[in-house]
Amino acid sequence: MADKDKGPRKVTSFDVARVAGVSRAAVSRAFTPDASVSPKTREKVYQAAKELGYRVNYLARSLTNKRSDLVGLVAAGLDNPFRTLQIEHLAKALLARNFRPILLPTSQEADTSTVIGQLLHYAVSGVIVTSDAPPTEICEQCAAEGVPIVLINKGNDIPFVDRIISDDRMAGHLAATHLIGSGVRKPAVMAAPAISYTSRRRSEAFIACCKQLGAEAQLLQIRINDYQSGYDAAGELAASGIDGLFCANDYMACGVVDRLMQGRGRNDTPPLRVIGHDDIPQASWSAYDLTTIRQPCDFQAEQTVDLLMSRMAEPDLTARVEFTPVTLIKRRTA
């Protein structure tokens, strides 16, 4: 009767080992990223765990190993569909390597020390910081704690911190050559270069390429790279004489297109050529049919996790930078 009052006995790794016909050490290796274990043994362990309802207590394991299987994803600007897509692919890439992502939203105005405290409280194995999040203090504190970190689309050059950067120079070149080649004579780029590393690089590359092609490109500076800023700024485009526009991201470009298309038919083309950047799902919607520069989130996520894992294995490697390739996707707007 006393045993019944205690409820069902908790399944342990010893139970999994017994059912799978392997050692307890093999069970531990099967649930440890990059541990040496054969695919056949791993499959037997996973199957036994599923049958028994066994779950690894990763937080308890972290108390023993000093590191959990958690990887912190520090992200800002989650209203941007590209950021959501980016986080989704990063999470999938981490899960595929048996890491557990933990999302920590932040912003330009956020108290970074709070984010750092949360990351280190969970004894994370690594940290990934996406663009538009403030990384410097996070990097310094994580480095002091020996926690590997990878930055995505950030310009900060920090010792022992690796970076993945979209090929923004190529993006500016692709946008400029396509617009000028389509007959544009008064090009412009819309961006918030003061707060965004990627916006600054894309704008500079676009303006430089336009100049090489014999056209003087105008920089239309906005406060932030979001839909509303694009929508508001587009109100002055009609009177400006600009006939071709490169937007630093698709989110902003969608706002521009919506403003330009007010009062027009659904199948009309915008009064000027518009190119975005990122190729978010909305870019292919019939309401936009937006020509854009594709930044492949799936490939970028794999690059990021590869760098993070190699940094875990060799913490003293010099800082590395890898570039994510981009491609032009032609649609109705340009």
TrEMBL record:
The keyword Repressor applies. InterPro entries: HTH_LacI (IPR000843), Lambda_DNA-bd_dom_sf (IPR010982), Peripla_BP/Lac1_sug-bd_dom (IPR001761), Peripla_BP_I (IPR028082). It holds the Pfam family Peripla_BP_1. Residues 11-65 form the HTH lacI-type domain. PROSITE patterns: HTH_LACI_2. GO terms for molecular function: DNA-binding transcription factor activity; transcription cis-regulatory region binding. CDD domains: HTH_LacI (cd01392), PBP1_LacI-like (cd06278). Keywords: DNA-binding, Repressor, Transcription, Transcription regulation. This is Transcriptional regulator, LacI family. It comes from Rhizobium freirei PRF 81. The lineage of its organism: Bacteria, Pseudomonadati, Pseudomonadota, Alphaproteobacteria, Hyphomicrobiales.
